[in-house]
């Protein structure tokens, strides 16, 4: 995995933080941390998208963020779990992994041309 894809994964991790913060923040500190997570998340996403295909970067970012947010809700906030929710989250994760596997960065595509 190259460094740009690592940036996407880190950005998605921060997305989990700010998405959770938007729902549960209730004081100045938690709102400040949520705002910082938003800035860091999108800064890393933009940096990664400069050399990776934007559509795939955003799909991977959103998919990993969604999966991470569901896991955080289940583990830390006792969100209800059902078979269909887990099945569709697994399907989303398979799609994200598939996109990552079939997409190279622009420098790889330029080298092949």
UniProtKB/TrEMBL annotation:
<keyword id="KW-1133">Transmembrane helix</keyword>
<protein>
    <submittedName>
        <fullName>Paired small multidrug resistance pump</fullName>
    </submittedName>
</protein>
<feature type="transmembrane region" description="Helical">
    <location>
        <begin position="83"/>
        <end position="102"/>
    </location>
</feature>
<dbReference type="InterPro" id="IPR037185">
    <property type="entry name" value="EmrE-like"/>
</dbReference>
<dbReference type="InterPro" id="IPR000390">
    <property type="entry name" value="Small_drug/metabolite_transptr"/>
</dbReference>
<dbReference type="GO" id="GO:0022857">
    <property type="term" value="F:transmembrane transporter activity"/>
</dbReference>
<keyword id="KW-0812">Transmembrane</keyword>
<dbReference type="GO" id="GO:0005886">
    <property type="term" value="C:plasma membrane"/>
</dbReference>
<comment type="similarity">
    <text>Belongs to the drug/metabolite transporter (DMT) superfamily. Small multidrug resistance (SMR) (TC 2.A.7.1) family.</text>
</comment>
<keyword id="KW-1003">Cell membrane</keyword>
<dbReference type="InterPro" id="IPR045324">
    <property type="entry name" value="Small_multidrug_res"/>
</dbReference>
<feature type="transmembrane region" description="Helical">
    <location>
        <begin position="29"/>
        <end position="46"/>
    </location>
</feature>
<dbReference type="Pfam" id="PF00893">
    <property type="entry name" value="Multi_Drug_Res"/>
</dbReference>
<feature type="transmembrane region" description="Helical">
    <location>
        <begin position="58"/>
        <end position="77"/>
    </location>
</feature>
<keyword id="KW-0472">Membrane</keyword>
